[in-house]
Amino acid sequence: MNNQAVSGLNHALELSNSNNLLLIFLENPLVGVLLARRREIIYVNKKIVEMFGYDAPEEMLGNTTRILYRSEKDFIEIGKSIYSSLNKGEEARLEVLVKRKDGSEFWCLLSGKSANPDEADNADSVWIFQDIDKMKRQKEILESNIYRAILDNSLVGIVLLQKRHIISANKKMAELFGYDAPEEMLGNTTRILYCSEADFEEVGRIVYSDLAKGKESKLELIGKRKNGSEFWCLLTGKSVNPDEAGGADSVWIYQDITKEKEVDMMKTDFISTVSHELRTPLTSILGFANIISKKFKDVIYPLLVLEDKKTKKTADQIESNLDIIISEGQRLTSLINDVLDIAKMEAGKIEWKDERFTARYVVEHAVSATSSIFSEKGLGIITDIEDDLPEIFADKDRFIQVVINLLSNAVKFTDKGDITIRAKSSGDFVLISVSDNGMGISKENLTKIFEKFKQVGDTLTDKPKGTGLGLPICKQIVEHYGGKIWAESKEGEGSTFYFTAPRYAEKVGAAHIKDFITQLKNSAPPVLNYGSVSKNILIVDDDESIRRLLKQELEYAGYIAEEAPERLEALNKIKRKKYDLIILDVMMPGLSGFDVAKVLKTSPDTMDIPIIILSAAEDKQAGFKIGVERHLVKGVEYP
Amino acid sequence: MPKVLIADDEPHIRLLMEQTLEDLEDEGLEILLAENGAEALDSIKENIPDIVFLDVMMPKMNGFEVCSEVKNNLKIPNVYIILLTAKGQEIDKLKGMESGADMYMTKPFNPDDIVKKVREIL
Lengths: 639, 122
What we know:
The complex is a heterodimer. Chain A is α+β, with helices and mostly antiparallel strands. Chain A contains 20 helices and 22 strands.
């Protein structure tokens, strides 16, 4: 259509009756209709004129649709997406923020199509405009209200951070930290939530490396309120844009866990009180029974007139009664130990002392500890340990406990023959098994036996000896290290109990030590100025090769280095000499490096000595909580 | 003359320990008793015993505090301190270490072990 034709159309429409329907459509009050040719407005209906705040169609005709857009940018950008659809002969449909004559903006739903897609020109398009402004704004308000309701009523504190600045906080957050309103917190960095600058920095270091990787970060720490009071909180956070700027924008959830910490402490106190209350009278009972028994045997018995049958009978009875009291007392002690063990394990209160040891060591110690029950029943023990088994890294005594348990059970349920204990390598684990030719276990009981207080045997006729806790305790120990424990059996033929123990994995290489020394020299040079005494460093690590390597490298770098292979020796050395720096291995026998660090940091004599912790594991938070200066992850990262 | 101090608030336990060390008493060992932490500390200061058996849970001053006072503050030499406890917590072993104790034993204990240890130390 050419311009003349268009105005002719307008004119004709106004006049023609036969085109009433078309007229009614075009002049309807509901939608705006616009015809464009190469983005030039060639027709607009009354509604368009009204929507866009013009006085008459003529004002708009001849202009490009640019007048409808907010900016040149919008005109070009939106135009691009519209015309790419149109050129394909498709309908374009989108929500656009458009501009009236007076400059005010409103939301419109646009749908349009090419009027003549077949023509090479493809210049004409017809457009329907619908004002959706009210609806859109209402939707926005509704959404905003919903979010607001969620945030305001949340039972946890929620904050949105940008480069550690609080840009949004909900009511609960203000409540948790003792502020009158969230607005008070805005604009500050999260420093206001921490007890110290050191805390603020350490946590930042720990947390932002996880966030940048898109990982969720979770930690417990002591937070500080507006009034300075402190409380335990649990933080969970995630970056909203990990790909940009290293996770600088993040959202965090804060929870007050004061109650949980209290309950935790109550559990600990309860367990230790029960332990104390039960063991104290038992100590008296067993102790005195032992003394009486000894005195009777050594002093009284020899003095008795044993020819008198009645006297002898009474004396023998007294002796055996005393033995019963003693053995029952010991049984009670075992029971208390077992019950407390399992209670502690379930409460997560066991302190595991991890170290390197061989399967052979565990097997040999367990066998020797149970040798008496084997000989009592006349049973034999066969050991079959594979050569070159990898070492195990775990709590040695606990694993001996497991094997002793399995051996005792085997003896309990076997009447003759031998019991075999095997150890072999199995992937990342060491597999240990105890086999017997005893009465076996029925299918239903194979998993039941690992439940607390469930023992095989009829409770009326087969009075079970023992606590019924042995296998559940074994299960807790094995599973703590990610292993499995299970049994295979055939009733009447025998059973085999299997469990897996974690292999020891290599920790560090020489190259990393060189890097570490370089870093150390940069931050804490060996000699302050010419002529002053070299700095003294103590290396605490159970691994001899690492100790030697560190010592060599440190001395070569100009430091004076001493070694200590384990914690007690280290503490003794520290008592006697003032070191400038202590390098502590976390995975050491006996108490872990963290426990030693704790001791040093809480004692006034040693709390000022800087400590560097070496570990292959990511225990940074634990180290930070005690106040360790720097935490090096062996062979992986550096401060 | 070698001296051993037994500090425990439970009279039965004090009696038990005394009886356990009876034979050694016949051989010339002097046995001293204390009912609470404060008494124990005074006794240690006055008598300088060779060995001290300290129960950790005592009124007035607990075993850890007495041990720490003797080892870390007063630094009295040549006193072998054995902490006795019915508590089953490993964290107490750490506390024991911090306080400077020489040894840590859990109750119930075998009387033979006690005798053996005392003979060993003296």
